[in-house]
Amino acid sequence: MTDSLGQPAWMTAKPAVRVMDALEAAGGPDCARFVGGCVRNTLIGAAVHDVDIATRLTPERVTAALEAAGIRAVPTGIEHGTVTAVADHRPYEITTLRRDVTTDGRRATVAFTDDWAEDAGRRDFTLNSLYACRDGTIYDPSGRGVADARAGRIVFVGEPEQRLREDYLRILRFFRFHAWYGRGEPDEAAVAACSALKDDIRTLAAERISKELLKLLAADDPRASVRLMAQTGVLAVILELEPNLARFDGLVEVESEQLFETDAVLRLAALLPDDQPAAMKLAERLRLSNADRDRIVAALSPTPVLKSWMSPREIRRAVYREGQAVFRDRAKLAWAAAPGTAVTHQWRGMIALAEGWTAPVFPLSGEDVIKAGAPKGPLVGKVLREVEDWWIDHDFLDDKLSAIEKLKAVVQGMAY
């Protein structure tokens, strides 16, 4: 019996129909099939976010066919056969069937083909080498992609080492797909190959590594996959640091049990030791964005030490000093590192208080300091900081007159 997807909504959507009609007008029936993630996810009941298409048409013919149908064609990866169709504001990545000519572990030189099996043979995993025609019929050239997808088996197409030597990023992709779709014990041959070739990850561009790592960490529960990465030595190659697996596990548990959104960047911070310079070095080596780098480093700050029993006053002080976002990150990491769940309500209460409190603006300025008698120069900032500390210690006293009186006392007591 031939497997079928039926007619899912993404397949019968107007823009998808327009694109397929355009391709078939140029190449005839079955010149194009849906491929990869949209087929796999529909098969296993997961959400479909991107719809990709494979075709026998060359990129030039794809472009001409789209433009003839009034569909925008964007040459997003023309040297590798990829054109993106934009129909009704919806993108569809269309790639000509390919075979590898040469590979070096980082990039491939490809030649176009019209053989579906040859195209499938160069793909990474059996569950990704699935095609579906417009009536929903599934084509499974490996003969096991459908079964592997349904069983949650992440298995390389052909020999694992050969697939990895074509592109070493597939080592990380194996662990990422295992985190997202894997069930049960991982494929032994795949694990052995990833372990044997792990050092070749260093030949990859940093941006490719970090992008794949963050995708992995964004899975609902990547704990088993991350531990497998640690056991094979892959994680050590990427981080070059001793991972904090206990805190990472704790954060994933906190997020799942407390219904927090999955947060890949904070999970990466949780994996790192409490060493800000080392975290900075890692972020720069992986070429993370400035925002992600700064967030990770701030989350690993050693002070102030956050405890579940902090008073509201102490919480407000910490939020004022660090900002809501940093306090929330640090509270989650402290919570993740805390043994047991007996004080869960206290951690949740801390975060709720921080998110519900609007930090006040310090009511004094440098001009106020000068009016109080201090000379212009470095002393102005010093006085302001001392009075601000007093204001914070008094729980952000909402009384500017009292702050001015304190300011006068500080200025009068200083020798300058």
Description of the molecule:
This protein is an alpha+beta fold and 416 residues long. The chain folds into 4 domains: 151 residues, 2-Layer Sandwich (Beta Polymerase, domain 2), CATH 3.30.460; 81 residues, Hydrophobic Seed Protein (Orthogonal Bundle); 56 residues, no CATH class; 47 residues, no CATH class. It is 53% helix and 10% strand. The chain contains 22 helices and 9 strands. Helix 17 packs across helix 18. The protein is elongated, with a radius of gyration of 28 Å. The model has no long low-confidence stretch (mean pLDDT 93).
Which short descriptors sum up this protein?
single chain, 416 residues, Beta Polymerase, domain 2, two-stranded antiparallel ribbon
Brief description of this entry?
With 416 residues, this protein is an alpha+beta fold. The chain has 22 helices and nine strands. The strands form two sheets. Strands 3-4-5-2-1-8-9 form a seven-stranded mixed sheet.
Radius of gyration using CA atoms only:
28 Å
Largest sheet: 7 strands, mixed
CATH topology of the largest domain: Beta Polymerase, domain 2
β-sheet strand percentage: 5-15%
Strand order in the largest sheet: 3-4-5-2-1-8-9
Number of strands: 9
- CATH architecture classification name of the largest domain: 2-Layer Sandwich
Q: In the residues, how many domains can be counted?
A: 4
Structural class, by secondary structure, is: alpha+beta
Q: Write down the overall geometry.
A: elongated
As residue ranges, the low-confidence spans are none
Question: What is the CATH homology-level superfamily of the largest domain?
Answer: Beta Polymerase, domain 2
Mean pLDDT across residues: 93
Counting copies of identical and different chains, the oligomeric state is single chain
CATH C-level class of the largest domain is Alpha Beta
Secondary structure: helix percent: 40-55%
Separate helix tally: 22
